[in-house]
Amino acid sequence: MPSGEDDLFARYFKPLAMTPGALGLIDDAAILQAGGDDIVVTTDAVVAGVHFLPDDPPDTVARKALRVNLSDLAAKGAEPAGFVLTLALREVSESWLAPFAHALGEDATVFGCPLLGGDTVSTPGPAMISITALGRVPPGTMVRRSTARAGDVVMVSGTIGDATLGLAILKGEEGGQGDGAAAHDAMVERYRVPQPRVALARAIRDHASAAMDVSDGLMGDLAKLCSASGVSAVVEATAIPMSAAARTWLSRDPALLARLVSGGDDYEILCAVPENRRAAFAIAARAAGVPVSAIGRIIEANHAPKLVDAGNREIPLERRSYSHF
Amino acid sequence: MPSGEDDLFARYFKPLAMTPGALGLIDDAAILQAGGDDIVVTTDAVVAGVHFLPDDPPDTVARKALRVNLSDLAAKGAEPAGFVLTLALREVSESWLAPFAHALGEDATVFGCPLLGGDTVSTPGPAMISITALGRVPPGTMVRRSTARAGDVVMVSGTIGDATLGLAILKGEEGGQGDGAAAHDAMVERYRVPQPRVALARAIRDHASAAMDVSDGLMGDLAKLCSASGVSAVVEATAIPMSAAARTWLSRDPALLARLVSGGDDYEILCAVPENRRAAFAIAARAAGVPVSAIGRIIEANHAPKLVDAGNREIPLERRSYSHF
Q1: How does DSSP assign B114-126, residue by residue?
Q2: ipTM score for this prediction
Q3: Which CATH superfamily is domain A153-308 in?
Q4: N or C terminus of chain A with fewer C-beta within 10 Å?
Q5: Could you report the per-residue pLDDT of A219-239, keeping only the tens digit for each?
Q6: How near does any CA of chain B get to the CA of A11, in Å?
Q7: Which residues of A touch B78 (CB under 8 A)?
Q8: Fold entry, domain B6-137
């Protein structure tokens, strides 16, 4: 990394460089001792006004920026090894950078993912945080998108749709008037601060035939996994795990279903698990403290995955995921 | 990586994902088989209007974005292993993206650094290209900034100051009226398209006690290297390698010297070489086809490095490097 910003970056972020290989952020590069592992590399950027709201608190922005990357690593079965950070900012404001760095440091510690290096650049545009995260897996064990097989069970962690509702609340949309402040806060929190399923990485690696994280909408992401694997899937709407709050919204407005299964920001793990691994995967997930649900089946077909109701009737979806362009 | 931009990214950049571990850019992450090597990680972003001019041709922007990172790897003694790319763009324009991707692919091939993955995000702000590059070194051999010792020779590759003059030309400044178009073009090219000293990586690893690349100005970067190493240095102005064109400008305006040694974008390698390795380093550099020059000496002192003239008188420097904030 270059720049007169060296000092600025080190001033705020040195406490996050907990690993010797980060060299205290005073060098041009960091060292990652790979040992015998494969290194898993993923990169994700968040932009103010696109991936987070410009007035979101800096601590939640920091957590989201790192966690969307940790979510990708977990879905690949990888343990976090470290990350690098590029911060594009209009101006350096102590009141923004200090809580940003503090929260990022907390997450780096909690998830065992030290900062390895980074860069601050000035931009006249909106703030942008670009993170590249590195993880480790034993050689040859990274879980791919493209290896799902017909007959596999489609499984997903946690609950789907809360982040979409959280964003709706932040945008002032109607829908959840009777839910109480606590339910609203929980959904807003799901939008602002994803819970990456780092604890599930080992179970994914050991049991899933294919996996990815749900970042752009459950049905859209499943379509990508199926397309990469040359298969299709059928998902039972009633089996999709939802929070009590989401069920309340849905009971008032059943048409909301299509939006919840195609909205973004869930950051749960979607995977295909061979039938004969299903029980072992469930046990491993429980041991990791992560709820998982079977929501459908991988099938041999070349149409997009179908969402069906309790009577096995297809539920039409206008769009399946969020796209920036 | 996430997003409805998957397809867009893969459409333009799939040809650059030459390594099997990139998984054709259709997965959420890439696999880097580390073997027994240490992985060297560096990250650098370039922003329109800050690091390149908004109307710079897209092919030169692509090359600069990758090459500034390759320059960091080379200075650490690392061989390129791959890179990930985050493109923040206002809009997707075929006429910009196609030549950008084509040039990036050429450089990825020439420098043996395949694309491993990436992400396109929309931004209402200026274009920004953030790259994280990964390199390899045998375990424990990455060359640091912090390990220069008193008595070492200060050496630098190539020539210093051409990029600063190239930027001056692009900004319409006076100074080189009599140089002819070819000399002007060469200096503009130095600003737009750095020549990363990838070929010098092995020689640096084998012989340098400390190294970094010159991205923000020779004297400022030397000050960083010295500060990290707890030493100082004396540099002889007449020993600093300069192109014939830069010497011509300098002969007309001797005060320009301070600007050339503190301007950015040289992307040469600055290193400290123990006296007893000097000859071996010179031979290795010649074998690699990279000119290197001895410009001074590391000394034990706690002042900033000094620039001196032929009479050993200190040449005062108002500033030593470029800073974005």
Answers
A1: -EEEEEEEE-SS-
A2: 0.88
A3: PurM-like C-terminal domain (3.90.650.10)
A4: C
A5: 999 999 999 999 999 999 999
A6: 14
A7: 29
A8: 60s Ribosomal Protein L30; Chain: A; (3.30.1330)
